[in-house]
Amino acid sequence: MRSTVSPTLRFTHVYLENWRNFANVEVDLQQRVFIVGPNASGKSNLLDVFRFLHDIVSVGGGFQEAVRKRGGVSRLRCLAARRYSDIVIRVRIGTDNRASTWQYELRFNQDNLQRPIIRGERVQKQGRTILERPDNLDDEDRERLTQTYLEQVNANKEFREMATFITFVRYLHIVPQLVREPDRSAGKRNDPYGGDFLEQIARTGEQTQRARLQRIRDALSVAVPQLQELELWRDMKGTPHLRLITSVGATLGSIHGKNGKHSLRRGLVGYNAAARWSPWVVLIDLNRDENCAPPLRQALLPQPAPHMCFRVVVRAIESWLLGDRERLARFLSVPVNRIPQDPETLPHPKQTMVNIARRSRRRDIRKDMVPRSRSGRAVGPAYTSRLVEFAENHWRPQTAAGRVDSLGRCLRRINDLATGTYQGAP
């Protein structure tokens, strides 16, 4: 385990006596250590030593609290301990060049009142002992042995570098169920078991967040090769979740209907005939043709072929693009609150898109997407080109589908078509 305060220091050695299920263990630690073993073999107990030291020096912690939260000395002590029952923790902290810059040893037990009592505390720096307890002051006042010098600011000046290092040690033991269901750990911060793991990522800056998600994606892609992207999104309650965007392995064939809706409608019979043997996807805007999609779909294609996926965009393709609010706001260089929350309810999505572009901080966006005064046009000269650029390079369909139901249904049908499970859905 490393500290974030100093990139050069790290734990290089650990020695334990009577700690949990370890009667005695001693091991050198490399820069990266993998602990492998069956369930209940002590992997977590070994790692908890570092968390225990952190709890001693952390704000609001201390030796007594660190022992109490683990159930007391009797719960910490190895059941095999008999004649020599003291619990001993000894760690070395150093660098790759000097493995033992610091050495800290803590020996403790409990008194007749079952209070944790320090039997010994020692600090060495580069082999020289700078603290040895019990000392004369401890002999005069035995209550002093209920606290470590490590946790006391007025006593750890000579080895504060080591104490600070331990303060910044982080213990993470991620439990997948808690990451998947963060409501089970609602209200927790810095939960070592991952209850707020996604929230911690969400609180980071955009560049850091992107880098961390990329590392998670790279790891997951080993198990899920078709994984394309990993994104962080919040549900209606504001709870963060991870969304995996995968590829179904389909390839794009010929594109038809580039001459507008009327041309598309004229060719629909032919497309449907071709869909008897190969998969076809046809998209058409709802616009103001009907109040809802099913009547229009029934009127235009009452009997779709087995491999025909005929979907209606509610109400226009702009609605689908508006669904990815964050990426669209960045592309148009406008505040995200300018992008509507529910694009399917917009009566004129194209006009909404133009009005948003009109407020862009980028002159080229305004020039391309907003019609010139008295031109008589509804959109700018490069409006379509800009939408294509956004759709091809920035748009996240899976993200947009979370806000646009017709897009979500379309993506599910395309997935079924590509995987051979399409049954012809409404």
Overview in brief:
By secondary structure, the chain is of the alpha+beta class. The protein is built from 17 helices and 10 strands.
Q: Care to describe what's here?
A:
This protein is an alpha+beta fold and 426 residues long. It has three domains: 10-167, Rossmann fold (3-Layer(aba) Sandwich), CATH 3.40.50; 176-246, no CATH class; 317-403, no CATH class. The protein is 35% helix and 18% strand. It has 17 helices and ten strands. The strands form three sheets. A six-stranded antiparallel β-sheet has the order 2-1-3-4-5-6. Helix 1 crosses helix 5. It starts with 9 loop residues before the first strand and ends in a 7-residue tail after the last helix. Mean pLDDT is 87; it is low at 1-6.
